[in-house]
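Continuing the batch. This is chain 6 of the set; chains 1 through 5 are on the previous pages. Same settings as before, nothing changed between runs. Recording input and output for traceability.
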Amino acid sequence: MTVFGKAGAAETATDPAPMSMFETTIQVKPPGQWRPGMTWEGLQREIQSHVQTPGMADIIWMPIQTRTEMLTTGFRSNLGLRVYGRNLRDIAAAGEQIEQALKDFPETRSVFAERSEGGRYLDITSDREAIARYGLTVDDINQVVETAIGGASIGFTVEGRERYPINVRLQKDFRDTLSAIRQISVATPGGAQVPLSSLATIEYASGPPEIRSENGQLVTYVSVDTIASDFGGYVQRAGDHLRQTVHAAPGVYWEWAGAFEQMQQVESRLLLIIPFTLLIIVLLIYINTRSFVKTCIVLLAVPFSLVGAFWLLYLCDYQFSVAVAVGLIALAGIDAETGVVMLIYLDQAYDERVARGAMNNFSDLIAAVKEGAVQRIRPKMMTMAAILFGLLPIMWSTGSGSEVMKRIAAPMIGGVITSAVLGLLLYPVLYVLWRGRDFTLSRRSPLFPE
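Output for chain 6:
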């Protein structure tokens, strides 16, 4: 096992980590070398119980997950709250109340509210009466401070095809301490050199390390790390608890964000994508069959397959997610394809008997359906076997991305099994009920054996 620690942001513009963020990257041994009974969840609980830093919240994530979540949601945890208000003091107080309310809430691993104090600043405030006596303006003082401490750009140097800016400021010894800054000379219109301390008040002050603004209002973040698998249920329970325990100042309100916000966006998109996908499948089937009844018969494979899909998801203890939705959409396409093939075999057997003039009664219809269904057994089993052999290894995989792939493959595996069984058993029956409307059942029909 190796451990690597980092504080603050790396020396790159692509690292969004603030100075208050401490990261510890742990490279663990392969699971086969862990002590007996140890699991990933147990390892997280042990780390959580043994590693506690005062004033900081522990969040256990994969390294790349930390970056992607921060870039997409702005939070360092899977859930979070945005607290809006009119001033920093009110939203900071509300954030601290939320932190205390959720600290011991069930299924909450850690919670941390950003503090509005802790930043140290050097304030230089111009004395307007003093600068007026020397014939100076506030802008003159600001330019001296900018040039002497921050640096001012005075031009560019051109070296071939390269161009570099030229910045000028005082050497470090003349600006690295408070006493040195107070001795910075300011030139007056009369040619005199006056120290900066005679023209401005120079002192250290405390303030917010960061100020955020969203939707035209000040906002602060509260990071919530939860172990709940159902984010929607957790947000509902935690929201009810906060409304009862948190008493914020007038004008302060909060909203849930992070993964919950992404989940809401995904739900709204799925409500559009899933019906649109089913509509495309229906149109393709209708264009292929040219029959509304045949289209309905083929679509009956979808609920047949959903039985196995949801049973396997239940047995694997998988919650509904985007990956599961993708697997269900793919399953719907497979079901439509296999249903169309079954219908083609039944139609071929039926049309051959009609062409030979051997479709005279209900018994002939039964014989034609049996012939078509028997011809479909081998292709159906080959299709199911190919899908199963291709997807089953995913269920035993443990590498990167395996958790997502398992949730895509699970509904397809379960759905293909029940679709194959129910399709072979119920498709012929439905076909007989449809085609048999032109025949009259007799007591000598195979459906009514003596």
